[in-house]
């Protein structure tokens, strides 16, 4: 009896067929094709979030600069803002425009997107980014502005 059982077990094939293995490989390939681009997009969004954080920090630094200089933003420089807030040293920061009552700070992400905070003369701020609708720069809801608006999200 045991001999017959051993003979029967020896004849039975165990394992997967080539077709079954190919189907599994195909399914894994499809899942990887979907997951990998989504992963890289999340990485770019994280890099853009870091640039947004640096822009907010630059906004605080330039407001601190104005407090120390009689409420005016006139002589603000990147080096001056970095002196106020050392975490801006690694940011690709620029202060392209500023007057006594207005300013604009811009940070460029490693993805190439730029994030800006502009203060108007009436005290309101506008948060914009370019190019719109890419990575961490959402499309603007305003019909007059071509840039993205990251202030609402």
Characterise the protein shown here.
- This protein is of the alpha+beta class and 153 residues long.
- The chain has one domain: Glycoprotein, Type 4 Pilin, CATH 3.30.700.
- It has three helices and four strands, in the order H-H-H-E-E-E-E.
- The protein has helices spanning 2-11, 18-68, 78-84, and strands at 93-98, 103-108, 114-119, 125-130.
- It has a four-stranded antiparallel sheet with strand order 1-2-3-4.
- A hairpin with a 5-residue loop joins strand 2 (103-108) and strand 3.
- It is rod-shaped and about 100 Å long.
- The model is unreliable at 142-146 (pLDDT under 50).
What fraction of residues sit in β-strands? 15-25%
Low-confidence stretches: 142-146
In CATH terms, what is the architecture?
2-Layer Sandwich
SS class: alpha+beta
Number of helix segments? 3
Please tell me how large the radius of gyration is.
28 Å
CATH uppermost class: Alpha Beta
- Fraction of residues in helices? 40-55%
Give the biggest beta sheet: 4 strands, antiparallel
User: How many structural units, i.e. domains?
Assistant: 1
Distance between the termini: 74 Å
| Principal-axis shape | rod-shaped
In CATH, the topology is named Glycoprotein, Type 4 Pilin
CATH superfamily: Glycoprotein, Type 4 Pilin
The order of strands across the largest sheet is 1-2-3-4
Mean pLDDT: 84
Succession of helices and strands: HHHEEEE
Number of strands: 4
Topology summary:
Blueprint: H1 2-11, H2 18-68, H3 78-84, E1 93-98, E2 103-108, E3 114-119, E4 125-130
Helix pairs in contact: 2-3
